[in-house]
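Anyone? Bumping this.
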Amino acid sequence: MDTNYAQVFQHTGAVDKYEHVTYAPGSYASRINERQRAYLRALVRRAFPGRRPVQHDFACGTGRAIRSLHGLVRDAHGYDTSTDMLTKAASVGTRAHLHTVPADGPTPWPVTAPDGPALVTMFRLLLNVDDTVRDRALTFAARALPTPGSGLLVIENHGNARSLRHLRARHLRGQRWFAELSHDDIDRLLDRHGFEIVERRGFSMLTQGWYERRGLDRIARGVDSAASILPGTDRYAVNVVYVARRRLNRAA
Ligand SMILES: C[S@@+](CC[C@H](N)C(=O)[O-])C[C@H]1O[C@@H](n2cnc3c(N)ncnc32)[C@H](O)[C@@H]1O
């Protein structure tokens, strides 16, 4: 995958497109976002009953994952390579400390609180970057979550290799922004950094095309809403969220 992924979001045209086209009301991405938001809010309530966590959203972009958790976290930090994305995040009401970080070189450090749990979120990043960026992102997460009791890491894979989306791979493989990640790829990446998956949830069984065809969009919404609450569908879902924590006995 292209190593210049960070460059893609370095101008306001791309930022506006992301916020107002990709995430336009009713779009494929925003339907998934609605389901993820409900899931994330329930997860945080259930996983942090005593003390609200501090959120660290790596590659936060326009602040989607931070806004999803408004009111449920003690504090929030967003980190991104694009100041244009961070400016947009602030302008759409993201309540967080926003930090510009370099795309390469030493891994940025999370702004850690002296006590209390942390929640690291990482949405729509891992699929489209190379292994160096993936390892950097996970190094960041491991620093925010040094022990199993430190909190949770939540990551999104929006191109599961064992999903319907794979049918397009034969035609699109090698094209600039077509990538796939399998559950095993995610598992190995997390394992390398001393994390284990504790939960996995699918948020769309169908691909974007279904949502863009008149007459099919309502069926697609119904299928995906049902699938996102049925056990076992995560294996073949296009869009998957993984929840992980540090392992007790870890190599990394
Ligand atoms: C597709 S957007 C996702 C934004 C947000 N997480 C979301 O789900 O809406 C990808 C984001 O990753 C950021 N990014 C790209 N390379 C990065 C890197 N090496 N380190 C941190 N952020 C990076 C981009 O600037 C962009 O904001």
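Late reply, but here is one note on the structure posted above: The chain has a mean pLDDT of 91.
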